[in-house]
Write a structure and sequence with these properties.
Low-confidence stretches: none
Largest sheet: 2 strands, antiparallel
Structural class: little secondary structure
Strand content: 5-15%
Shape: globular
Radius of gyration: 14 Å
Strand order of the largest sheet: 1-2
Mean pLDDT: 79
Order of helices and strands: EE
Helix content: under 10%
Number of strands: 2
């Protein structure tokens, strides 16, 4: 039998998706998952499923999940 101890990468609360029932797994503004993912070297030049950068230009931290949270009113450029 193995035991996994809780750490910062585990959640006990709901991740606060926009609409999990409707399959919209983007992160809501009131979320425990923002800036709490584990940064990896490959993320430096990668994008999420919406084509947005995994590491933002302000915190340089990745969100948990496959989408990055973008606050309303944020301007960003895609190539």
């Amino acid at each position: 039998t193995s035991t996994t101890l809780p750490d910062a990468s585990n959640l006990t609360n709901a991740p606060c998706f926009i609409d999990a029932v409707g399959c919209d797994y983007r992160l809501n503004a009131n979320l425990p998952c923002r800036d709490t993912g584990t940064n990896q070297n490959w993320m430096r030049n990668s994008v999420d499923l919406d084509g947005r950068r995994r590491l933002d230009n302000f915190s340089w931290k990745v969100d948990m999940g496959c989408y990055e949270y973008i606050p309303p009113g944020t301007l960003y450029f895609t190539r």
